[in-house]
Fold this sequence. Notes:
Layout: E1 5-10, H1 17-30, E2 35-39, H2 46-52, E3 61-65, E4 68-72, H3 75-81, E5 85-88, H4 104-113, E6 117-123, H5 131-138, H6 148-152, E7 156-160, H7 164-172, H8 179-187, H9 192-220, E8 232-236, H10 243-257, E9 260-268, H11 280-289, E10 293-299, H12 302-312, E11 317-320, H13 327-333, H14 336-343, E12 348-351, H15 376-397, H16 401-424, H17 426-444, H18 456-504, H19 511-522, E13 526-533, E14 536-543, E15 556-561, E16 564-569, H20 575-639, H21 642-646, H22 648-680, E17 686-690, H23 692-701, H24 705-709, E18 712-715, E19 723-725, H25 727-744, E20 751-758, E21 761-767, H26 801-812, E22 816-821, E23 827-834, E24 841-842
Parallel strand pairs: 1-6, 1-7, 2-5, 5-6, 8-9, 8-11, 9-10, 11-12, 18-20
Antiparallel strand pairs: 3-4, 13-14, 13-16, 15-16, 17-19, 17-24, 20-21, 21-23, 22-23
Amino acid sequence: MTGKLRVFLGAAPGVGKTYAMLAEGRRLRAGGVDVVVGFVETYGRRGTEQQLGDLPVVPRRVLRYRGIELTEMDLDALLARRPALALVDELAHTNVPGSRHAKRWQDVGELLRAGIDVATTLNIQHLESLNDVVEQITGIVQREQIPDAVARAADRIELVDLSPGALRTRMAQGEIYGPDRIDVALDNYFRAGNLGALRELALLWLADRVEEELADYRARHGIRAPWETKERIAVALNGAPQGEHLIRRGARTAARVHGDLIGIHVRLDDGTLQSEPPGLEEQRRLLRELHGSYVEISGSDVAQALVDFARAESATQILLGPTSRSRLKELIGGSVINRVIRVAGPIDVRVLPPPDPDLLAVPSAPHRRRPALVSARRRWSAWLLGPAGAAALAAVLSPLRGSLGLSGALLCLLLVVAGVARLGGLLPAAATTAAAAVAADYFFTTPWHSLVIGRAADVAALLLFLAVAGIIAHLIDGLARRSQQAARARAEAQVLARLAGETVDSAARALPELLGELCQVFALAGAAVLVRMGEEWRPVASWGPEPPARPDEAAFAAGLGQDTALVLAGPSLSQEDARLLGPFVTQLRLIRERERLTAQAQAAEALARTDALHINLLEAVEHDLRTPLASISAAAAGLRSPESERDAGHARRLATRIGAEAERMNHLVANLLDLSRLQVGAVPVTLCPADVGEVVRAAVDSLPDSQAAAGVRIAIADGLPKVEADPGLLERALANVVANARKWSPPDVEVVVDAGAVAGRVDVRVIDRGPGISEVDSDNLFQPFRRSQPHDGGANGGVGLGLTVAKGFVEAMSGELTVESTSGGGTTFVFGLRVWSGAPTTG
């Protein structure tokens, strides 16, 4: 029988996970449950120690690792004791080498397999899937990780929550860290923003686990209807152009309701080889950008497969685009949209119309002395229907000539002329007027059915008809032109208002986006912003399939500044279009100017950082050179004194002092020069196979006698593989770090330097027993020019220079220098170096 796992999950250290676990253990023990503490780390916190109280504790196992005694949980003793519940702190802990398992979660797994229930603690930053997110939030790499599956397999996960303000208050009151670490922690890892983000991360991860449990429950009980615990928008994608419109609409809906977006593509499993639709890859990319997920499924029935998957994912909405199938195909094969609506059941189905491609287009302005602009389809319809319709109407009315007369027939034909003028414009109306006059003469004037007019009154009526029809057609054409001008004015106003809003907007507009809008407004084939580089023009941004490559190849070109031009491809622009193009050109100039100013600001910021570095460098030189110079001056004056002349031993001591201070100045100057080279990337690096033991011994030998004699023990085993390094740079980096460790270690305690091969690399560890560092200030440890801070490198020509130079040298060799707390107190610097596997290289 397998034991049950209970995890107390926290967003950050100090929220009270261990306290809550111990409190639960005490409660269960009071109820008669056999509870044993397998491992608890109190970190000296009074509340945790009080909560531990009289709970039985299994003694820890003592392990000796590289000359140091360390303690770990005694797994064998726990298995022999076989309690009902074991309390095991810090699930993500890495065991001391030589333990049965590398990780504590593996120890817990063995306890569970033995039938022992386990309660444990875990911080959200140790979950493997969230490691990169936590690093982005806090800037600190978490090296102790556990697979998410271990935590998700727990029978119960309890979130131990504490608001950022309350946690910072506990920190300030000294309930989490000691007084020497409080300020650093509050200013780094425990910033309110960091804690809020970690808290939200923990809540979201726990919510995802709850959703998994809910899905399992629904599957076990055969529940198919979606439970609207969270909005999930499913978008059906088939690679059609309107798919991007569907994705954006779905993303906006999901963002408003804090829901999920899922893109679904259904492939027919009819046994035929199907190529991927051309637009599907771009739609997948857009989904990733909008934080949606993409799923591809197969089925013989597209609608049923789509709905089945949406139901399995508890989708609450399905978004569909308009069908591209013809009516005939829908009659033969049926409509996918209608079938989805029929089988969707309680899932909402939304069919979105396609985006209007002419939404941003500005209508062409009609010419003042030309007829109103009419589409070709309407114009040809008017030409075909107008004259023929007038003749046909006259023929139909001819039997009524006795009662209707010529005047009545002309009024009826006048309606046809007006309709044709409205449909096709002035020219078809003129042709229809002429055809109507001829038809009226043929059918309604005597003699009948001839083009001869026998009465003067009929001639006058026909002439009057031609005049009135021409006036009506002209008026209708004028109204159409006024309407078109008003529509263009409205479109121009919308475009100008949008451009004006973007001009005052503080956010920078992307050039391709504005070029795309420009092409839509003026119905252009392409547009580009070109920059002259010598004799060539190179595009900065472009839109369209084939934008012009040079200004002389473009239908229109406008300057955007020095050696920068806007080029357009497509139909020539009218005078009105050129007037409207002016604001676009202005907006493009503003964007280019904003880009130029942004680049200048970034360069100025980099220059300011460099100036600050130089100022700090001068301060460091002034601060650190004064002391050895004063000592050298005093010692030199002592050599000239009568006492030195009488006492040779005194003179030798002064000379030794001068040599030591000169050596200190030499280290300082070397570190300053090295730091300058690192800042400009001018460190020469020659990688070759290097023996770690030899380099370490050379680095220790290079230390001043006072530091080496105080005690540095080299514990490096034989047989280590050679590393890929520059021996000279590695020696100097090790010397800086060892000298720094020697400075902060107690005089009677040795600094240990050891090394071991791990997964294709060699780790060289420098271990001291000094005051140690906190987890949150490890990243700031290698910053130069810090005063009066532990481990600041002052022992080797200082104010932070020694460690900064060491880190720069190691990274120049593609290695890594990290720092961690030594178990039992102190600090460990770890040089991660790659095992040699290639030919020498020079950088």
